[in-house]
Design a protein that fits this description.
- By secondary structure, this protein is an alpha/beta fold.
- Among the domains are: 3-132, Conserved hypothetical protein from pyrococcus furiosus pfu- 392566-001, ParB domain (Alpha-Beta Complex), CATH 3.90.1530; 250-294, no CATH class.
- Helices cover 52% and strands 12% of the residues.
- Strand 6 and strand 7 (267-272) form a beta hairpin.
- The protein has 14 helices and 7 strands.
- The protein has helices at residues 8-11, 21-35, 60-73, 95-103, 118-131, 137-149, 155-162, 166-173, 180-187, 193-199, 205-218, 222-231, 242-255, 277-291, and strands spanning 40-43, 47-48, 79-83, 89-93, 108-113, 259-264, 267-272.
Amino acid sequence: MSPLGKGLGALIPTATGPVPQQTIQKITQETLQQTGEQIWQIPIDQVEPNPEQPRKHFARLEMEELTNSIREYGIIQPLILTKKNSGKYEIVAGERRWRAAQLVELKMVPAIVRTMTEMEKFEISLLENVQRQDLNPMERARAYQRLIEEFGLNQEQIAQKLGKARATIANNLRLLVLPTSVQQAIESGRITEGHAKTLLSIEDSAKQEIFLKRILGLGLTVRETEDLVKGQGGHHCGVLDQNLLTKEKSLADALGAKVKIKRTKNGGKISIQFTNEEELNRLIDKLGSQNGKL
């Protein structure tokens, strides 16, 4: 039995935007009529999270918004659970709702209880998170890798199950070859997947970490990172001058602005970035006070 055959796609809002509560309720009821399933009220203390859940990080703001919604309207969309041998229930989809329900001290949660294989449970859990764009790039990459290693799927099969292009799956999996420090920066949101893709164009992991420090130290955008890597020769770039990076960061800290130092054959140049007229005037005053006059 395929998990999607039981109306999962209808039960899960897509990434195109929030789905109105009335629409969720209507779709849920229509789907249950088709499948013959029903919604049960399950004691919240009998529900446990799935230890294999792909998502490991729950954004605080998102949880606050969901908690406020449940406090006002209750749980609109039922959880999907499986029953364990212990008699308790394990979450397949809806861990955020369960966590939020605990925060508002609900005693019962609405749920659909299903019998599933481990493969089906993981597919549903992954699909729910991917469709809602809840997973960060590293969580997605590890989930795809697990589908390959534990369930024997190839990239094309994963793409078909998730409704994505095979190239998207392949590019996401490439993040797993990056150094641990880079992966951690992606996972914590300090750099974006765009930054990471640019770093992947550098073959040497030590150089990738050097560029990561520069991205973080100077707050570089993806485009600025691309320009930086191209300027250093991409795949054949040399190791950045650490002394120059230190001076660049020191100057940026002193001025409170983004600074770039570029060496040339006859010396070099310093670029100071500002975003508006007020910031420009502040920089002029700061430079003037430090040098006596501009």
